[in-house]
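Below: protein 1.
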Amino acid sequence: MGELLCVYRGETEVGKLHKEDAESYRFRYSADYLQGPTARPLSLSLPLSLEAFSASASRAFFANLLPEGQLRDYYAHKFRVSPEDDFSLLKALGGDCAGAVSLFSPEFVPSAVAVKPKYRPLSATEQEQLLDEAYVMDPAFLGREERIRLSLAGMQDKLPIAIVDGQLCLPLDGAPSSHILKPQNQRFPSLVENECFCMSLAGEMGLEVPASSILQVGAGAYLVARYDRTTDGQGKIIRLHQEDFCQALGLPPRLKYEISGGPGHAECFQLMTRCKNPLADRIRLLQLTFFNLLIGNADAHAKNLSLLYGSSQHPSLAPGYDLVCTAVYDRVESELAMKIGSAVHPRDIRYEDWQEFAGQIGGSGKAVFTPLRKMAETLPGTATRVARRMANRYGENSIYAEIVEKISERAAATLRCTAV
């Protein structure tokens, strides 16, 4: 038998990942877990079963736990494995992933971590060193890097950290993180301020988003609380299970964009029928869809939407995250991650596209047009107020005015094309 990784959901081992060759592995739930009273599937795409899942079904879930693009290449080079070798990357990085999933070699006993998780405080100097990394935030300079096993999916440089007794700390030995830290991006100026502004604006508009702020160290960093973490009565960080829409639909990360063959709004809204409160989550997803369009976020793909699991076996739509106005950056593709009706580009959206969109998601025109127009009417003024508040708190930055301008343009165009 090939190499194994034990797969945990929180503190419970749920099954094993069996490596078949350099690029193939299969997941199987353990019989003990399946017979237990708290057995829950890892994913809507991985229902409880004694049978091992196919390599493609297994990879669709577990590959989505790993970084993408140049971050993946960086870690592959660092650990001297192929960028296509999910299994080796999961072995190196899988101690603290999105949600409650973690992966460990059979010889490692994570129960010790669960009883007394270990955290390494970061001094002010170390925080600056971490944020000054030119290519990727890699805490290797701290030493003993073999104890740091952190993985977050996506293209953007980010690092899971924990705030313990008010201090920024690095989780060790697979201890759970509580926050995500993103540095400034040299390719996209003021991306930190951009994301913090858009997340704050979403909250001001009544959308559910985690708390976020700008860490004013060096050039600044975006700090956001993890919605897939909570704390118990003793202040211990507890993981909450989640999965992104690609995982739930059984799709690999390369299919996160509709134009690449990934899901569109029809498939995403269909997932809401699997939720604990389908109608409420459908409304929340609709509001998030409108918001992403109006702020100029062309990167609202299937991996930037997730399901969050509590005690129920049925999930809820997770809070919004990765909300950014990509329209202010000329080098970013302006086509929508998911079409509105038949329109691929925002400038091409017509009344008929919104009607088609309503049909695709199984709704009426009124259920779409009324809340869409309401958001388009109120968003520009709210954005202006939030921009003023951001400037007062973090200092003036031209990115705020640029985003407000894009929002005003999108809102005006939306009101024009939805006028009866």
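Below: protein 2.
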Amino acid sequence: MNNRGKKGIEAIMRSEGTGLSQLLLSPLSTLYRAGVSTRLLLYRAGLIKTEVLPCKVISIGNITVGGSGKTPMSIFIAERLRNAGRSVAVLSRGYKRTTTGVKVVSDKEQVYLTPKEAGDEPYLMALRLKGIPVVVGEKRYEAGKEIIERFAPDVILLDDGFQHIRLARDLNILLVDSAIGFGSGRLLPSGILREPISATERADLIMVKGGKLAPSDRARLTHMNKEEMEFRYVVKKMNLINKSKVDKKVTNQDARVLVLAALAEPGSFVSTVEDLGLDIATTRFYRDHHSYTEADLTEVLEAAEGLDAVVTTEKDAVKLHELFDKVRPAQEGPPVYALRIDVEVSDPERLDALLNSIPLPTGRSHGGAV
């Protein structure tokens, strides 16, 4: 699908209106809702078994399509657990990876897979999380058993695991982007919801990115009385990822840049760049998890001629590294920087208390309480 077609579908999904396209997609959303509801009912009735691992499981996820800060939040919480003395491992599905089955992306010392083999986000987490194993596996319970056998963690952090209800968890963290909330409230494909809003009842903590929820979204959650916390992105550093020797300084004083990203929601990243005081002269956006080609990078560097720099994400940077020397001598091109994004939460002490408050269920003897 070309970018124009994708943007058209996304516009329909995020629309609050009831135009012809919405009416045509509504029957598909009804079928999707029926499938989701049937699956949940089978779990509630015990006809599909929920599996329990002998260690604490913390899940981070969302109920909307697109990004809501899952990867930065997973890194943040994994580091917080590690720094508190816990033994932690990260488990992800590894979306759009070229491998299958359970694969160790990294152990406590070394990264073993490429971005394509691991998936973009698990590879980035493996680079960032020193001393923390990162494992991918479609079947999270089976992957969890292998993690326990190999690494014996106290805690498994389940990345993007809100819908994976086959695996029991001790703390369920739901992320919501304040900029989009729950959209129109409709399910895929006429809306942005993976599950009905009632699924938020499974959350122990709702973390809202970028500020408070809009009143309409707040009203949808009022009766649930859920613990809430706000978080935001912060830029800790800008890492030069090519070998450019062009003497152009990228500062917060009106440097002119090209913004490059392959994200579900590039608007949040654009806002982050703007908050640094950079002047965005032009942009190049690709669909989420795009595999960059030499032609892509050539076009980006040509578009950036005369500008001070290209600014991209860490997730994109891991896929761009190997292309630079193939496209042109890097010394001749504009500098390309990746923003290192970290997380700040509104109440870190309360978050720590929640991470430490839930005891291991009866019968779990592996590891210690977190």
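Residues 1-6, 360-370 have pLDDT under 50 and may be disordered.
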